[in-house]
């Protein structure tokens, strides 16, 4: 429960502006995404390809690490209908949602919120214009709700706090998905209903829509689009409204520590919440909450991030490669060292079915592969899909396009697999260019840079072994 004497109003604009100015002067800028953010805000990446404009936007940027998918625990359910949530349960209702057709898939994802916890996933189908998701929760925890249209050309998502409450899902202005209900949830995500936030979201979407028809094989057009998008993102006032509101909650002395801890889940990157500031806040909240599971989880995620950074340093350009093994669609094991022994140059390419930028780069890879494969170049592609079914489906789709004529493998464990950990992979696309002597020549080449690098190293043509 929220404290009864907490002030439900936002600080006035002048106080908020002054605080933001002080923060900008005092906080460092970190480009890396926090590991908690990767688990929280990018859960929706598990959807397949989305409508064309969003696919393009993500292709121009990149995919963060998603949580692994899993079946709902036995005590959770998904059904159509209505009802009241028992005291220790939650229920999420959607009725007569504008533009959402029958057959749409509703998914609630709750990442691990304490040591020993597993990700939870609950699904339902919209039937007769309605749905209900229900389950148990032993304490308030961050979650992500998304709606996938039947034709898989559109989805919408909304962060939420899952607690002992009933929720109503609504669309505001046919654009912003909100979940109303729950004391912590309503307080933390109140900004999503602010008129100025809705207006800015509409403006941002309109400006980004102009990139939906971009030819991703046109290098000059892609470069221009990236520059324009950087300017648009920098002027994304909807994000500024969100950040200001979240910091107003954290700065408000009368609010409970648990609400502030939960609010931290909606920060978007290390630019918004630096590692030093996060540690400072966790130390402060632990004085009140003790070793709360969410605090322990965030500290564990920070430690994991540091370990991954060390692994990336060990597999940087100039270092020696690490051997890995993965299996093809027939279950046959393939070892990277064997492929290296038979070629002059090998590109280790990590991808996943849900990563549209990865799949958007396949035409570039196919172009150089067909040019140099018979002359000592090979691609060792490892899928980090959590599910074999999703990988096989994506592989079949790409094969029909003629995009993946190389060695296609999958390593069980997704982002926690041996292959991903060996190279410190926490986001996709991710690739490693390796010489036949085992030296790492380049990392994380994109699109046209991949073509140029491989072409430069393979000409004059090397001799196939």
Automatic annotation (TrEMBL):
It comes from the Bacteria. Keywords: Cytochrome c-type biogenesis, Disulfide bond, Redox-active center. GO terms for molecular function: antioxidant activity; oxidoreductase activity. It holds the Pfam family AhpC-TSA. InterPro entries: AhpC/TSA, Thioredoxin-like_sf, Thioredoxin_domain, Thioredoxin_ResA/DsbE_sf. Residues 315-463 form the Thioredoxin domain. It is found in: Cell envelope. GO terms for biological process: cytochrome complex assembly. The keyword Ligase does not apply. GO terms for cellular component: cell envelope. Residues 66-85 are annotated as: Disordered. PROSITE patterns: THIOREDOXIN_2. Its main location: other. PANTHER family: THIOL:DISULFIDE INTERCHANGE PROTEIN DSBE (PTHR42852). This is AhpC/TSA family protein. It comes from Solilutibacter pythonis. The lineage of its organism: Bacteria, Pseudomonadati, Pseudomonadota, Gammaproteobacteria, Lysobacterales.
